[in-house]
Design brief:
Largest sheet: 6 strands, mixed
Helix content: 25-40%
CATH architecture: 2-Layer Sandwich
Strand content: 15-25%
Distance between the termini: 43 Å
CATH superfamily: Bira Bifunctional Protein, Domain 2
Radius of gyration: 18 Å
Shape: globular
Number of strands: 12
Oligomer: single chain
Structural class: alpha/beta
Order of helices and strands: EHEEHHEEEHEHEEEEHHEHH
CATH class: Alpha Beta
């Protein structure tokens, strides 16, 4: 008898603002217990558009913060690393799971490859030939060099279409659990982002979006393609649901105390939390 596919949760929150998005991602990770929790695929968007900075970036050194404020562009710090991203017309995802659920028996890199594999399947369903940068790197180009702007550099498992980077992905590991999030860009907002950077970002023009590739999928259709590719790639069954009461409570606490705080968003990524309430109140 064929064994049933492992069950994962599918949470589609739709568009939220930057602090709410990052707080919920961290709450899903903080509340995850590999012995008792189902792993999660979350889909979301950004409203209003926002700039996110990597966990270890100096936002003041990298961004024209006065211009961001004048234009009404919020700045939020991610708990993952990497460079600055302008979030606007995109489908964003996050994954929370244990390393073994990502197939890491053979190492972290193979786990990252497996967790990003569904993106290749999604682009294939859109009629695109996509591959990881490391698999196309016949010339031995150095990958993973740090850049201030996400789309100005290439990591090993960045997805490439027609030789151009499409979207980006980043991970954070905490207490035996993985948070990975990334995006599928519907339209290019690279030029919008460059307006707010203090320094030029050579290589950013090489990034590409679906619109630039002649594709404008209906949002629901794109989400279904991604879900189908995810289930096929990881061999799992996604069950739609909502964040739990505990996850929502933790997210609200993180949003208020951390992700709406300039100490976290504009400072150097230092934040010391009181104990998070991971247990439901009676």
């Amino acid at each position: 008898m064929k064994q049933a596919a492992p069950t994962w949760r599918l949470i589609d929150t739709g568009p939220l603002d930057g602090p709410a998005n990052m707080a919920l991602d961290e709450a899903l990770l903080s509340c995850f217990d590999k012995k008792h929790s189902l792993p999660v695929l979350r889909l979301y968007g950004w409203n209003p558009s926002a700039l996110s900075v990597g966990r270890y970036q100096d936002a003041d050194a990298a961004l024209k913060l006065d211009l961001c404020g004048a234009d009404g562009i919020p700045v939020v710090r991610r708990m993952t690393g990497g460079g600055i991203i302008f979030h606007a017309q995109e489908l964003t995802y996050s994954i929370v799971c244990a390393p073994e659920q990502a197939g890491e028996a053979t190492g972290v890199k193979d786990g990252f490859r497996r967790l990003c594999g569904f993106l290749l399947g999604t682009y294939l369903r859109l009629g695109l030939q996509a591959a990881f940068a490391t698999d196309l790197n016949k010339s031995g180009e150095r990958l993973g060099e740090r850049t201030a702007f996400c789309f100005a550099g290439k990591e090993e498992f960045d997805v490439m279409v027609n030789g151009r980077k499409i979207g980006g992905n980043a991970q954070r590991r905490l207490r035996g659990a993985i948070l990975q999030h990334g995006s599928i860009p519907l339209e290019s907002r690279v030029q919008d982002a460059l307006r707010y950077l203090k320094e030029p970002a050579p290589g950013a023009a090489a990034a590409v979006s679906l619109a630039e590739l002649g594709l404008q999928p209906e949002p629901g259709q794109l989400k279904q393609m991604l879900v189908d590719a995810f289930q096929e790639s990881l061999g799992v069954s996604l069950v739609p649901g909502r964040p739990s009461a505990v996850e929502l409570r933790v997210a609200a606490q993180l949003e208020e105390e951390k992700y709406r705080s300039s100490t976290w968003n504009i400072g150097r990524g230092e934040w010391h939390s009181p104990a998070l309430d991971l247990h439901p109140r009676l």
